[in-house]
Specification:
- The protein has strands at about 10-15, 20-30, 35-40, 50, 55-60, 65-70, 70-75, 80-85, 90-95, 100-110.
- The strands form 2 sheets. A 6-stranded antiparallel beta sheet has the order 1-2-3-10-5-8, with no helix packed on it. A 4-stranded antiparallel beta sheet has the order 4-9-6-7, with no helix packed on it.
- It has one domain (about 25-105): Jelly Rolls.
- The protein is globular and about 40 Å long.
- It starts with 10 loop residues before the first strand and ends in a 5-residue tail after the last strand.
- The chain is an all-beta fold and about 110 residues long.
Length: about 110
Amino acid sequence: MVFDFGSEEFVGIPNFKGGEGHFDAKMHDDGRCKVIRGRIEPGSTSGYHLHEANCEVIYVISGRAWFDYDGEREYAEAGQAHYCPMGHSHAMGNASQTEPLEVFCVVPEHRVP
């Protein structure tokens, strides 16, 4: 299956997971896995949340991200990835005051009904 993110429009999700600002996403969700191309403007964040039934891999396409992972601050830039295993918590934000952050996320469900 091919997703053509280049021909899709971003959809703004305000206060994503309880965060600040909004998360712009091109998202595909088949109930078993979410595949997301995301953009986060300066000052925007996702809320801190627990991955109870899934994990998440976030690859930084451009910009610089911060992650609060199980209470510790980490940073990743273009070409690096952040991993949040099932049972762990994290939040994400744009570490730049001037440039947007672009990410690619994969969220596979571990407990499918």
